[in-house]
Structures are given as structure tokens and as C-alpha cells.
Amino acid sequence: MYKLRTFIALSVPGIMLFGCASEPLVKIPQPWCTIGGTLLGAGMGYGINEAAADDPGDTDVEAAAAGAAFGAATSILLCGGDYPPKPEPVAAPEPVAAADPCAPDDDGDGVNNCNDRCASTPAGVAVDASGCPKEGETLLRLQGVNFAFDSAKLTPESEQVLVLAVQELRDAPSVSTRVEGHTDSVGSDAYNLNLSQRRAEAVVDYLISQGIEGTRLDSQGMGEGNPIESNDTDEGRFQNRRVDFIVSSN
């Protein structure tokens, strides 16, 4: 038993130095490493005690127990903790902020889609906080709304142009408009005023036939008095023969 104690005493410092290593020297998973070390230590203690036989007072059981304790301690130092080492926890990804469904402003009028009651206001038209055109704004200006000669009857080509007005009024159901008819300067003032009134009424009738409520529409002939181009050229006169949709209330 004396020799066993001497062996343990001399081995402990070296084992402790090895146990301080950054990685385990014996790469066996726990608890199997400790169990194996305990059994091996018990066997060594028993064997050394039998070989030495220098102390009749020592029993094989005591030697085996001492060796087992030594083996267990040694295995813990040499094997370290868990092996293979547990992976480092992976940090959870930063949560991605959900897209704000109200952020888009499809018609570019400065009012987001959720608050915009007039979702397709034409570019350049001033709007209020609800996104609808302000009173007095020109909602639409349509050129090419032509009529049969000396008549208020819309041509098929004009009806195709008015499809845009129908859609715009459907997209802004809270808006009422004044449909203004304008002419060029060919003819007398009185004649053009009367003709522009009849043509404005014809446009209103067409809009009503397409499902726009008549209570939202008013007609007014403006004659030749509000040209936007010179009446001295064919192009200028074409620009002046127009229909304006003015916001009367919202």
C-alpha cells in the first residue's frame, strides 16, 4: 500500500498539469471516460498492491478503492467536461420589421394608400388631407372631345377619350365636378357660348350613361372666352376645343 500511495503522490502533479490543457487529452465522451478510468484505476491499485505485498495490513479491497478513486480523478482531469464539446448557441436573427401596407402612395399625391380616398388622382392636381382634389382644381382636361359639325353629338373617337374621365370619377366617388365646355374662336361669341353649353351637357349625359351619378355632375358652357392657346393656328384651335372637369365639391 505504501508503494501505491507513493505512485499516486508522484502522479498527481503531472496529471494536474495535463488537466489544465485547453482541450481534453483523452477524447472519450463523458461519463464513459470516468467509468473507464475508475475501473482501470481499481485494477491498477489492486495489481500494484499484489505485486508489492509490502504491508500485510493492506487489503486488496482498500488498494482497489484507492486506485479507483485515483482513476476517476485522473479521468476527469484528462477527459475534461463534455466531449465532443457542445456547440456555441447561435444568436437568433434580428427580427425583420414587417412592411407597412399603408406606406405606398401609388398616385404620388403625398397621401398614403390607406388614407387616400381618391386613389388615382392625376399628377399635378392639388389634394386635401384625404387625398382628393381640392375644390376649384382641374381634375381632368381632355382634348380631342369632338362633335359632329355644328352639333352636340359626340363622335365615337370622343367617347374613347371620355373613358378616362369615367374611370377617374369612379375612383373618386366623393368628388363632384363641373363639366366645362370650351370652343375655339370660329363663329360669334353667342353662338360659341350656346354650342359649348350643349356640348358640355352631351358629355354629362354620356357620363351618366356610364354609371356616374348625375348628382355629382354639372354642366357649363364657357364659349371661346378662356383659350389656353392662340386661336391663330389649327393646333391652337384644337387645344382650345376641350372639356375641363373642375372640382366643385369634395
Assembly context of the chains = single chain
Beta content comes to: 5-15%
Write down the Rg: 49 Å
* Corresponding CATH architecture of the largest domain: 2-Layer Sandwich
What is the top-level CATH class of the largest domain? Answer: Alpha Beta
The tally of helices reads: 6
Structural class estimated from helices and strands? alpha+beta
Tags for this entry?
250 residues, 60s Ribosomal Protein L30, Chain: A, 41% helix
Can you describe what's shown?
With 250 residues, the chain is of the alpha+beta class. Helices cover 41% and strands 10% of the residues. Helix 1 packs parallel to helix 3 and helix 2 runs antiparallel to helix 3.
Question: TL;DR of this structure?
Answer:
By secondary structure, the protein is an alpha+beta fold. 41% of the residues lie in helices and 10% in strands.
List the SSEs and their pairings.
Layout: H1 2-19, H2 32-52, H3 60-79, E1 138-143, H4 156-171, E2 176-181, H5 189-209, E3 217-221, H6 234-240, E4 242-249
Parallel strand pairs: 2-3
Antiparallel strand pairs: 1-4, 2-4
Helix pairs in contact: 1-3, 2-3
